[in-house]
Each structure stands twice: as structure tokens, then as C-alpha cells.
Amino acid sequence: MAKIKIDKEKCIGCGACEAVCPESFKMDDGKAKFTGKTGKCAKEAVDSCPVQAITL
Ligand code: SF4
């Protein structure tokens, strides 16, 4: 299973990843956090991030 990496420096806390894929992303203190589960929707979240902070 692919691991998700979130670049906290790049993340602007828009919440798009959580909206698209709540299984894998959770907002925490204004930044996105990986839940530990790589959902099928993770790829979509990568594409939805406006600042390319997520890598699979
Ligand atoms: S979509 Fe990108 S910028 Fe927005 S909260 Fe998620 S990781 Fe951060």
C-alpha cells in the first residue's frame, strides 16, 4: 500500500484533501495529517491539493 507524505511547509490548510478523502486525511491544527490509511481516494486528494503538498 502506498504511503502518503504531506509536506507541512507547503500545506496551506485549505482542507481540500480531507473533503475529497476523509479516509486518509484529517485536518489537525490547521494542517493536513495522514490518518495512516491509504484510501482509494488518496490519488484524487493528491490532484486536489492546490500547492502539491501531498506525495504518494
Ligand atoms: S489539499 Fe494540500 S494544502 Fe490543502 S489541506 Fe490538504 S495538503 Fe494542505
Plain-language structure description:
This protein is an alpha+beta fold. It has a single domain, classed as Alpha-Beta Plaits. Helices cover 21% and strands 21% of the residues. It contains two helices and four strands, in the order βαββαβ. It is globular and about 25 Å long. The model has no long low-confidence stretch (mean pLDDT 96). Iron/sulfur cluster binds at residues 6, 11-17, 32, 48-49, 51, 53-54.
Chain-wise SSE layout:
Blueprint: E1 5-6, H1 16-20, E2 25-28, E3 31-34, H2 42-48, E4 54-55
Antiparallel strand pairs: 1-4, 2-3
This protein binds iron/sulfur cluster (SF4).
Task: Describe this protein with a few key phrases.
Alpha-Beta Plaits; two-stranded antiparallel sheet; binds iron/sulfur cluster; 56 residues; alpha+beta; single chain; 21% strand; globular; 2 helices
Give a short synopsis of this structure.
The chain is α+β, with helices and mostly antiparallel strands. It has helices spanning 16-20, 42-48, and strands spanning 5-6, 25-28, 31-34, 54-55. It has one domain: 2-Layer Sandwich (Alpha-Beta Plaits), CATH 3.30.70.
